[in-house]
Design brief:
Layout (H helix, E strand, L loop, with lengths): L2 E8 L6 E9 L5 E10 L5 H4 L6 H5 L8 E6 L2 E6 L2 E7 L58 E9 L5 E8 L12 E8 L10 E2 L26 E10 L2 E8 L6 E5 L10 E2 L5 E7 L5 E6 L4 E6 L10 E3 L5 E5 L5 E6 L8 E9 L2 E4 L2
Length: about 375
């Protein structure tokens, strides 16, 4: 797991370009973003950006034209080029040697040609590979196949008696990407020892025609009446009555944000924030910080702010992936749980980290 990775991610409907990032990973599977930039690619038809095509021919034409990626290292200096144009240069001395290779995402088939490795000096003597114990990277609160089907969209909460509960959706019909509300059933499991062990998962039986009784609700309040390029909005309360919201954008590169000083009765206009992400979740931490997680290409990005969202720690990615949720443990650690992505099948897995001024730190 330890090493550098240059990641290339197609921005899709957010722009006719690639997001190019340099990540450095530690022995716990945590990856920190050292640099990021954008490189243009060929203009794509709108039908491909939104996935509106049928058949193999459409799929073959749904990729941009071939691009050339080049990574140049000179001591601690790392420079990344796309189609001959420099994207960024950064210096980092975490690692001084290693193997090279190419990894493609599970759902992202790519074609690779003319892969070359050139060096100005003799290659170091071969070193033995070491096996990595991946079982320590994440835990599985819901044992695989224990209740059958595919699991997703977990929600963590703490009950008045101190129990930590994970509720999640399960379906027998296929992975979450195919969910249409049929043959779904909620399930849950709980922990009485701060997430160390979990109860036997149980399916919640909901009879047809059930009713939910509760307090009445007032009319909805719109955060902004002019901007509709938003979804997946989450809100935190850093101070009593003072709220801050972050929303995923459909076409913007950075999330929308707005604030309220009267408990959500009125809001400032949405404005572009300095952080990108999707499926965000926000946590008011006992330290006074706000912790944000958001679904990333692999795992979840974690950023922490100590000034209500004006500035954030550097992006750090943790292994727990997919749509994720958080709860603070009694000792200040943060427990995060997510589903393993839109794979087939999919599972619920969890991890925990400590909140520090530099970002999340693995706690294992």
């Amino acid at each position: 797991m330890r090493g550098y990775a240059v990641e290339v991610f197609d921005m899709g409907r957010k722009g006719h370009d690639y997001k190019v990032a340099l990540m450095v990973s530690d022995e716990f599977g945590y990856s920190t973003e050292l640099a990021v930039g954008f490189a243009p690619h060929s203009v794509m038809a709108d039908e491909f950006i939104h996935g509106r095509f049928i058949g193999r021919e459409g799929w073959e034409r749904s990729s941009p034209e071939p691009a050339t990626l080049r990574v140049k290292t000179d001591g601690p200096r790392i420079t990344v080029f796309m189609d001959g144009t420099e994207v960024f240069t950064v210096e980092d001395d975490t690692y001084s040697y290693g193997a090279t290779g190419i990894i493609a995402g599970v759902a992202s088939p790519i074609k690779i040609s003319d892969y070359q490795l050139q060096t100005r000096q003799a290659v170091a003597a071969k070193r033995r590979w070491q096996e990595v114990d991946f079982t320590g990277f994440v835990t599985y609160p819901v044992p695989r196949h224990r209740v059958g089907g595919w699991y997703g969209n977990p929600l963590l909460s703490r009950m008045p008696d101190g129990k930590i509960v994970i509720t999640f959706i399960r379906t027998e019909d296929g992975p979450p990407a195919t969910w249409r509300g049929e043959n779904e059933s909620p399930a849950f499991t709980f922990s009485t020892d701060e997430g160390k062990t979990w109860s036997e998962p149980k399916i919640i039986c909901i009879q047809e025609g059930y009713q939910i009784h509760g307090e009445s609700w007032g009319a909805p309040i719109l955060i902004d009446t002019d901007k509709f390029d938003t979804n997946e909005c989450m809100i935190a309360e850093p101070e009593p009555g003072k709220l801050v919201s972050f929303s995923r954008t459909l076409r913007g590169r950075f999330m929308w944000t707005a604030t309220s000083t009267d408990g959500g009765q009125t809001w400032s206009d949405l404005k572009e924030s300095s952080v990108s992400g999707e499926c965000p979740d926000l946590l008011n931490h006992s330290s006074g910080a706000i912790v944000m997680i958001s679904r990333d290409t692999f795992g979840n990005s974690v950023r922490i702010t100590f000034d209500g969202g004006k500035s954030w720690t550097r992006k750090r990615r943790v292994p727990a992936s997919g749509m994720a949720t958080m709860v603070e443990l009694t000792d200040g650690r943060v427990l995060i749980a997510g589903h393993t992505g839109w794979s087939n099948p999919t599972w619920i897995h969890a991890d925990n980290f400590r909140v520090t001024p530099d970002g999340p730190v693995a706690e294992r």
